[in-house]
Every structure is written in C-alpha cells, then in structure tokens.
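Per reviewer request, we include the raw input and output of the structure prediction for the construct analysed in the revised manuscript.
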Amino acid sequence: MLDVLVIGSGGAGLSAALAAKEAGAEHIAIASKFPPMQTQTTMAQGGMNAALGNLEKDHIALHIDDTLKAGRGLCDEEMVRLMCSEAPQSVAWLEKLGVPFSRIKTTENEALSTIAQRYLGGASVKRACYAQDYTGLKILHTLYDQTRKYNIIYLYEYFLLDLIVEDGYVRGVLFWDIAHGEVRTVIAKSVILATGGFGAMYHNHTTNMYGTSGDGIAAAFRAGAMISDMEFVQFHPTGLYGSNILISESARGEGGYLVDQKGERFVDELAPRDVVVHAIYEQMNKGNRIYLDLRHLGKEKLESLLPQELALIRLHENIDPVFEPIPIKPVVHYTMGGIDIDKTMEIPTIKGCFAVGECANSKVHGANRLGGNSLLEIIAFGRIVGENATNYTHYVREKSIDKDYAQRAKDDIDNIFVDVHKPSFYSLRQKLGECLYQNVGIIRDEFNLQQALQEVTLLQASLSKYGIGDSEFKHNQALTEYLELRNMLMLAPAFISAALVRQESRGAHYRKDYPKMNDKAFLKHIRLHYQGEMYG
C-alpha cells in the first residue's frame, strides 16, 4: 500500500510528491496520463509572484491586496494570506533546488535578492520572478529532476478512471493503463489530485492542451465531492489570432502595447485580465483588429527576455515581431473553479483525498486570477498539501478493499469496444468547443446559456452512439480522448448551470442581461453536487 498517491505530474503534483518525501512519507507514487514534461505547467511563460522587493518597494500585504482586488470579492482572504506569505519561501525553495531564475545585477550577496522580477497584469509593482519566458518549463524540469533522486514511483500513462471511496474514506484509485490496455487498481492511504483544469472543453478556442479535460474534477464529482465557482472561466487577452497559442503577460510586462489597426492604444495593458479582455472584445465588436505591438522594445531586448514568444510567433503566425505588430484575440486560458476543498486542501466529503492546483478551488483566485499567481499556487500549496497528506497517513490503518471495483471499470471500458466502428466521436468534441465558445464565452446571457445547456445535454445523451474507430486495447489514443470527452460532457452542464444561476457580472463571468456586480445576492460561491450514476 502506498502512503501517498499523487495524480498529475505538473508543478503541483511534483511539488506535493517532494514535500511528502520531505515530510517522511516512504512509499510515494506519481500517476499521470501524460509522459513526463508534457503538462500544462510547461506552458507557463510569464512568472511566479513573490513580494521580494528586489526592483521596487514591495510587501506581502500589497501582494495580498492585489490578489483580493482582482478576485472581485470571492477570494478566501485567509487562503490568500497563506499563499502570498508562502511566496518568498517557495521561490527560495525552488532556488535551492536549482531553478535558473533570471537575474539582476546587484551588490547584494544573498542569492534571493538577485532574482529579476517583472510586471504582470493587476500587480502594483514588479513582482513576478521569471526565467526568461520559460518559467514553467524550467520549474518543471527542476522538480522532475529532484523527484528522480528519490525512490518515488512513476506510473506513466495512467488515465484516472475513478476514486475508490468507502464509508467516506478514499481507499485507492482505478486507472486505465494506456500502454498495456488494462484496468489497474492502486491502493493508497492518501490521494492527492493535481490533475489540472478543464479549459480543453473550449476545443480550438483555448491556450490549453487537449488533455486539460477536467478528469480529476469529474472523478471527484462522481465520488461525492462538491465543485464550486465553475462559472468563472478566464480568457487570456493575447492568444495568437491564427493558432490560439499563448503570448503571456510578460510581453506586456516588458512594455508591449495593445493597439487597434490604426496603431492607437485603448486600454491599460497591465490592468487585470477581465478588464483587458472586455476592452479587446469591445474593440473587436466595433470591427477593429487588435494587435500586440512589441516593435519599440527592440530586437536585443526581445531576444534576451522573450525568446520563446518570438519563436512561437514566427513559427505559428509567420510574423517577425521585431518588425511587425502581432494579431491577437482573447482565448480561454484558465478555469478558476474546481473541487471544493477545505483549508488543509482536503475534500470535505472524502477523507484522505486532497486536491491542489487548477483542479481545486482553493479560493485564492476568486472571480479573476491574477497573472503570476497560478505558478505560485501550485508550488506553495503543492508543498503544503504534500505535508498534510503525509501527516494524514499516520492515522490510517492498512485496509484492503472488499469489492472488485476493477471488474466494474473493465466492464465499462469493454462496452466502449463493443462497436468501435460507429461514427467518430471527434465531431462531438468539435461541437462542444464551438457551442461553449459561442454561448458561454466572454459575454453571456440567459438565452445563449440555455441554448448551450440544451446542446451539451444532447451531446451528452448521444455519446454512446459514437465509436472510437480503433479496436486495439494497448496505446489506444482514441480511447483516451473518448474518456476525456466523456468527462467534459459530464462537467459541461454543471458549469453552464452555475453560469445561469449567477445572475450578475463579476470578474471573468459577464452577463449582458445582468451587467452589474450584485454583492447582496451573489457574494458567495455556487457549489454543485453530483447525483448521477458512476458510469454512463
């Protein structure tokens, strides 16, 4: 029996596993459907917030204030205080592990005081620590290297099917072993979900990779967890117009402008994301094209500070940003809602099961995440949850599970293989993305939300009429993506329903039929509980 099973190999999962090791856990495993280094963390470019005050006067209290302000009243202040207070120690921890942060020239001898910082949207001062514009990638490489030093087991290409919960306690997890084509049961004293958000629902309209399909949220939901704040889906202001690829706030933080086709600026580029996105949307509705203009920064500065972004723009847009403005549009980037957790990051209804990162709703982002706080959250809270999960194991006696859960899961998978030659399910994924982008996008209203709810309910009901087109059990990518779609279709009605219930505009959720914030009725979290069958 494992002490701690971590599901997800992004920054949150690896931080949690290392923290569990530091806290004394002996038997730790990390399970992930992705091969190493292919998680959403690698795409984080801009930086990680910490009030170091290396370039400008800063304080943890100012970081807290900025975060609360961006969250539009829905942050849990105690959790925000915890996260922001942990930020300097978290950067120091990463520094000690070997993350190659970009540097400033200084006469100070202490390493932490030499870390460079830049502006990101919504911050009062330069607060984001960065490693050029490869911040997430370099953090993840370092964390992965560290986990390999210890006796931590990796379960590669394990797709999370369901949590095993008995009498309110997590006992283990059911996985689909993608490489071998078999159901696996893994028993553990404690489980940490670090499986990411559900941005892939907006297929073809998101910066997220295809696999951000809310698998952990769906599994916890089925097992009895509450989910909350699902209506808050954050659009990023600067996705590349033709490819949706992210160009982070680091480009604006270093001085980039947002301009229309006449070259005129129309918004404070470093305002919180919801403000910038709505300003862009308004311009686009007027028929204007929007560009990110970096030309005035000069080739030397761009190549030094933003090498990845330059390469992505040149490769995917066939534009040289040194000489040309870059066409952009807002695209889905981050999901603030997720599994409802308590202050120890445990799921209240499932003892021994914890959640961290984008799959969890720790309520540090409220209605609108501040740029630079997502990397901070996964590192700071990853370390805390690893320690909490380990402490929990001290009170758990080893116990075998009684029922053959694996057989039930196997029967479910076998049903998908009964007729693989039905029409391809991929058309449903396409329809889901279009439906959500058109009806549950930057601007929402009752009619479009009802339309979306009706459409996704029909898609959900029709899924069994579609097949995967591949009868091989081993390495079946179509099966993996079918299971992902099933999870997304399970969650989609839930988050559309939450958007219908919230009859106001707040942060990333804008209702044109209720354009004002209504604290009297909606200064609260909308929580949802699943009452359906475990398998459809």
